[in-house]
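ok so i was messing around last nite and threw this chain in just to see what happens. nothing serious, just curious
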Amino acid sequence: MNKYTNKILDVINKFDFELDKPIQLHNNDIIKKIMKIIDTYDNFIYNSTYDIKKIKKLHDKKYPLVYKAYKKTEKNPMSFLEFIQNQHEINWDSIDINIDDEDRSELNKILYNNSFVSLDIQHHAETVDLDYIRILTDEFELFVYSPEGNENIKSDINEIIKIIKIMIDISKEFECKNKKPHIIMFLGKQKKYLDNNIDIFTCEHVNSGSTYLENYVSLWRYEEHKKVLIHELVHYYNIDFFHTDPYYYTIDKMLEKHFTVTGVNRPNEIYTESLTVIIYLCYYSNLLNDDINKLFLTEVKFMIFQMAKIINYYNGNSYDQLFTINYKQKTSVLSYYILKTFIIYNIELFTEYIIKNGLQCKNNKIEIFSELLEDVIIKMKDNKNMKNLCDSYLDIIKKNKDDIFIFKTMRMTCQ
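result:
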């Protein structure tokens, strides 16, 4: 357990909290099925050899290379802000900027072809020496870039491969689409923080990974990289649904009845992140040899703390305002933090849905999931246990005057 988790636990455990009824996850059929897969990787060691190659930093400037690109573009009619909003459409080959090192080619896919990646991530990757690991097997292709000096890099690689193999087995066990994943990871030091000076939530505050279906998975923070890897592989194996699905509109329309969103919200992320939490809890319980019920309760408390933080950000004063806030966002805050929490709080209903409908949420199963989600939303509007804890956390947050990690972090899990 790292120092950040301990800081989180110190705050969220200030209040007693009980679920609506006792829960025994180790008796849950879906949990047992996932745990059985994970248990096969007890004491897993990746024995194949691999090289750790050194890559030198690109520059020492105080600004990322995209600024140099902006300056080199003659008679640019755009402001720099407009330019960076469109930087992922830049033809970098037409500008004399050296980013073409072959060993950086996979990293460049993350940095310069992905609209979710913010400038601070780009700048960090350009200005540090890197350890580069490439592992190509019949099962997966893995490219890892880590800032030089990570003493745990080999154990990190071992756990990353363990998670990849677990997700391969889960996709097979539940008869999901099986294909070789191509995974690119930059284990950068940037963390997801809430900035009180912002007017709208963006990828800078929320996102750590993305998936191009049928192509590759990318991650760009060390923070929560194991959980994020699971999340992105849920996308990659088409376990969740996508906005092109003809039934997608049913869940979109349902949410419009209960919440106001200005900007972007992807309802498929509710399913993806909820399933990710379940798999991650099973993985973490096995890793620590700890009680999954205890870990589950801790995660639920942290999720409620994060909801309280979002209410406070929107100048709300109570749990009830979760349902009246205008969610101004360029990424799916409502899905990631609020609706995921509602589903996980009702984990038995969610796993019953999976038992009846299968792990893959496709076509008319989206409509069934939408009905479940609406029932849960209505139920949570009057849930006294969640309301009382959320309001208690909100009181702590409003009284806090310190600019410290626990009150700024936008992590989605605390462990």
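not much to say yet. The two ends are 7 Å apart (CA to CA).
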